[in-house]
Amino acid sequence: MTLHSSFLSIVSSPGRFLSRAHRPPDMASNSVPGKENHCLKKDESNSQHKVYLDYNATTPPAAEVVEVVAEAMRDAWGNPSSGYAAGRNAKELIDSARAHVAKMVGGKPEDVVFTSGGTEANNMVLFSAVERFTRESREGQNTTLEEGVLPHIITSNVEHDSVSLPLLHLEKSRKAEVTFVKVSTVTGRVEVDDVIAAVRPNTCLVSIMLANNETGVIMPISDLSRRVASISQNRSAQGLPQILLHTDAAQALGKVEVDVQELGVNYLTIVGHKFYGPRIGALYIHSIGHLSPLLPMLYGGGQERNFRPGTENTPMIAGLGKAAELVSLHCSSYRAHMKSTRDYLEQRLQVVFGDRIRFNSHFPGTEWLPNTCNVSLLRPSILGREWLSQCRHLLASVGAACHSDRGDSPSPVLLSSGVPLEAARGAVRLSVGRETSQEDVDMIVKDLEQAAKHYEVKAEHK
Ligand SMILES: Cc1ncc(COP(=O)(O)O)c(C=O)c1O
After folding, report:
1. Ligand 1 mean position to 378 CA, how many Å?
2. Domain Aminotransferase class V, which positions (predicted)?
3. Does the CB atom of residue 246 touch ligand 1 within 6 A?
4. Before 380, cis peptide (omega within 30)?
5. Hey, which residues are catalytic here?
6. Global pTM?
7. What 3-state class would DSSP assign to 288?
């Protein structure tokens, strides 16, 4: 998507930003050539042209989503708990959104709880697992475990902060034991055998993301769930806690098909603003309260069946439902479009830079998100941040948005995944979206090339 404005004005004028956006990509790919290309060529030197390639950080809300949110704000402002028409209207919108969100992940509407976002959904699962373990131990279940044993949670060393930081907190405050399983530096994935090897008698939860936000690497959750289920089967008969499985699907939804039945998870985190929805989220819980326990983090007015009380944010929930509906309808064409654009981007980068670059998402035999290209400039040896800073058109980042205050230290995710230090220092994360075109790619490859030349010239004059 080529943006004819500065980033700030893009954000402040979403109508303009959205005018081309969010048609299904089958239409989008046909619609890219023509008028807009002409305009793009004419103004190529104009640094006001911006190409947003940071869709893993966030996505703009789809035009249909904005419409539904605005409509709900105007027409469905009633309290969904009120029995009269305005309230019923709001409740119907929420019910319909819940059905769409459930359908997107292949689950049942009653297994969806709306949250403020991914951070809350992730925290809810982790704290819930700890509290349940503690309750069960107090009630005399988990009989094989010694008194006072803490719950044990297994995760990976490349999770998003909204998983790793609550776990570090639980560990530090002596409320849980945590194993951070290292991802393989060969495959970039968490290996199932390594997770299984980490299981202890007091293990109660495994939390592994479905796709990594920096490398895009897709984790083997289905294989993991089969192994965890077979271990967990006899544990309650042995007086041990059941092992529940959570996956944070924030980065996978809207890019690849996600099906909770196939994944076999107890919990799955959903984040609206990663798939052109509003900035709220949801948690899928398989057979809530029966097969998968959930304990609230908040107490209040009983909304969301007491699992997440507080008067529902009807407009945003309605928008999330619309975004989910679009994913259900168009995911395969979104995926195909993003993949062909990302592949084209990588081909162009390879042609222009040859062996001066390294692709950090390429691991033998490992699948990664169809929209993600994590790439480092090796020669001249500069930081990813420096490379981006000389780009006139490209809007991208060097890694997770929540680590933008990390300064110039290399991404721990890349280092953990086996990316050499020099490459990790020079990495930029380019993530394409539903409307990114080949013309956009041509423009940013030239942009990256002139930015690299700037440093070459500088080095020559040293
Ligand atoms: C993998 C992953 N999980 C969770 C989140 C958290 O989502 P939010 O910041 O919207 O709560 C993000 C957002 O960047 C993410 O990439």
Report:
1. 29
2. 51-443
3. no
4. yes
5. 402
6. 0.91
7. strand
